[in-house]
What we know:
By secondary structure, the protein is of the alpha+beta class. 34% of the residues lie in helices and 24% in strands. The model has no long low-confidence stretch (mean pLDDT 93). The structure holds zinc ion (ZN).
Amino acid sequence: xxxSVEGLVCNAVNCGESDKxxxxxxxxxxxxxxxxxxxxxxxxxxxxxxxxxxxGDYVINKTDRLNILxxxxxxxxxxxxxxxIRAAALADYMCEVLSDVSVEEEPDxxxxxxxxxxxxxxxxxxxxxxxxxxxxxxxxxxxxxxxxDLSGCHICGKADKPWYYLDVMNGELTCRDCGGKDKxxxxxxxGTAHITILMSGAEVYAANRVxxxxxxxxxxxxxxxxxxxxxxxxxxxxxINHLERSYKTLEFYKEISSL
Length: 259
Ligand SMILES: [Zn+2]
């Protein structure tokens, strides 16, 4: 069956002498592995559209055994990412996570749009890389359905406390007055490990805003650099613990960021 799809190349791995295997996240079929014959040749008609981070229209011969690329037309290439190694490293991480949470035959247009929005802002240099990461992670947490209840302490219900502990796996806040404390590393009777994140009231408020903001306002983060930094660390810890794996692309991004 020949299908026309619109999608983002999240990964491109060399295979054979001049071919590539693409991981496409498409609007129509979710995640697809697509064989791109001759994609590495300079003269290939797929040269641009088969590059990592390319977004465009793809015509694919979809068979039980293999999906083969027939036509490709890049609409956006996010060229800005090629000029900035830190931005490219973050884009790599976001694409790897997007690929991880995407499922074959189950399109998720909103999650794809979130990634495209973040890649665009990053590529154009409109926001600081860490801010893009923060927004991508918090909003993805919401998309995955594991978003914590940040409306207040889950015991007393109060939302005006200066500090809370966020229980990552239960998605609950506990204020210090109700016994909130750092339980990281401790184990429940059933063997599950506790992971907690200390968050100030300002950080809880800001995280809530990032999640609930309209798309056009989702990058409005607090001005305080300290709050922004901890918001970025919190989203990462929360997301990575729920995805239950580590990312070399994330480690590389953090290494570059620390230089
Ligand atoms: Zn409380």
